[in-house]
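Ticket reopened. Same input as before:
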Amino acid sequence: MVRQAIGLFWRQGFSASSMQQVVQATGLNPGSIYLAFGNKEGLFREALDRYAQEGLAMIRRTIESAPSIGEGICRHLEGVIEEATKRNYKSCFLVKTQLELSAQGNELYKLAAAKLDEVEALFRGYLEKEYGRELAQRRAASIMLHLFGIRVYGYRRACAGPARRPSVAAVGLGSVCLPVPFSTPCSRVHN
Amino acid sequence: MVRQAIGLFWRQGFSASSMQQVVQATGLNPGSIYLAFGNKEGLFREALDRYAQEGLAMIRRTIESAPSIGEGICRHLEGVIEEATKRNYKSCFLVKTQLELSAQGNELYKLAAAKLDEVEALFRGYLEKEYGRELAQRRAASIMLHLFGIRVYGYRRACAGPARRPSVAAVGLGSVCLPVPFSTPCSRVHN
DNA sequence: CCACTTTTTGAATGACTGTTCAAGATTTGC
DNA sequence: GCAAATCTTGAACAGTCATTCAAAAAGTGG
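Engineering reply: fixed in the latest deploy. New output:
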């Protein structure tokens, strides 16, 4: 129910998704949706929230199951890169929402931005266990910056059609973007 | 005329901008707009095209007026970073368009992607004057990746309100993201 | 089996969408 | 200074939008 809404909103964005499409995607009737979520924005908020919650949980799982924090963060980045090279890559729901709804202090924009802040804070928290506060903060910011880059760059490549795919491998996304923030904690991916 | 359309579409995106808003922003009548551009998509295409053209011209100017190609690219990146820390930063029209209109092989998405490819090709062309083809290609890809990251990360910060601003400086966007692709060509910004 | 509450239904609503085009204004050619 | 051609105007159009709500269905307690 919220799951299908996530899929639709993630793919098409807020404005381009009509409630009729939501009705079709979820199989629910308009009345039920409005009873449960108030309005389109309420449903979108719920979808965004769920998406962010699951994303944060996945990051935590990845990092905590790794032998070290640096290695865990590396694994997460590698996962994001692998995801970004797949066909029909949808980029990040939070990033897309933020960019779409940035005009006039939109409430949903603020929510997306807050969730992205949570992600950054999560990285910062882990990094503070190994580095000083300031270095942890800078590394977390760097990770976010790289994640955004991967998600947009990978997105472009993924949607450009199969003819373009080989160049992704040729460019070597992994070897180009990973070395930076992890020259120390994760030498494995350093070229 | 197209200028005002750029402003509106850049800020609000394609779906969230109504033709009535376009009419108000440009001061033209619906009929004139439809005579000149066919439809909303035609006007958007024109706006996107003009924006990309001017962006490419600015990059060329920056690089060619610099003492070296590496230094020129650095200056461009620094300019983008500075821009991204300003209030009411609008991110990149091409990136926003690409992320908004990615679903179902949209024509405007393809245009935005093609224009971003042109930007990457421009960097590649310059870099090939100093490096081998493969290295130039990888460096150009890296630059694009960093540019996307800066534009999204900076965007988030810029819109989060004045209370958040100091942390941008504290994180040190410049020193975190710049060192990567330019450790050789532009040692100035390497920390 | 009934009376009562809760949930579900989906056609209807008014506002707004992108787009059109006949009528009016302006320019052009002579 | 007129007639033809071109451009401009903006009210009107059909369609879609998010949203509502009376009526039907399902659930509940005794």
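Residues 28-32, 35 of chain A lie near DNA strand C (CB under 10 Å from a C1'). Chain A has a mean pLDDT of 82. Please confirm and we'll close it.
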